[in-house]
Amino acid sequence: MQEPNVYDVIVVGAGCAGLSAGMYAGRFGLKTIVVGEMPGGTITTTHIVENYPPIKSITGLELGNMFLEHAKAYDVPVEMDIVTGIEKKENGFLVKTDYKEFFGKTVIYATGTEWKKHGGAGEKEFANKGVHYCALCDGAFYKGKKIAIIGSGDSAVKESALLAELGSHVYMIVRGDGIKGERINRENALSNPKIEILTNVEVKEFLGNSKLERVRLSRAIKVKGAQEESDELEVSAVFVLIGHIPRTQIAGKLGVELDKRGEIVIDRVGRTNVAGFFGAGDCCDTEFKQAIISASEGVSAAYSADQYLKKRGK
Description:
The protein is an alpha/beta fold. The protein is 25% helix and 29% strand.
């Protein structure tokens, strides 16, 4: 590989946190690059965003693109690539991808999360053949079909509205007593005649031939329109929406402190236990995961990086 370019700040991750960090680092006059594999981040896979002040309603894709364009307005390059490793050096960090290397005096780590897998029998076999993790990405393939959602949190409840628009019927499979999430989202799901909530039940197995055709449940249930109870539910697709896992493996190998959930431990301005290495967004230990919070953490991390460099005369 050729000698890496040297930056004041390398932002790892191109979502709400990473692009906000990149934008503010650019405003501070720091030589900055954002390296991430998904421009705009996972917010771009959200159907509708209605809780980002002061925007009343916007698609996730539109919001993600606004973040991207704002960062680029400060001449911050956004490199679409996957970071495979980070090495601590005497005066900074060597950030590696498969084909390139970058050297940063500081790093802001904002990699977000990945979808948590269900783990049931047949999940891997039917991945992208009826088993999916992103309603906006794959819901359109199942127009007029019966769809199931595994999950009860806010993400699952919100995505049920989109899938109800597309499918003929949506089953929400909930292992507890009911759905969770924001009150307005719960009310929308409960009042939608196309959404049926099945409680105190779990998916045990994904079944079908060349593609998913049904799921086996932990107990027999009777759904609307059925003549009798059954422990199998016929559906064309299942969307697994049971939460996320922080993408922090590289940070952990570098010696960055992680909590018991694998999230990066940061203070109020994004500092970690490793000098010059800052964290922001959903990969960190902030309890409430929201786009607006990720954006603010990205800004704080950029501020901290700027202060760190000033104190060292860099």
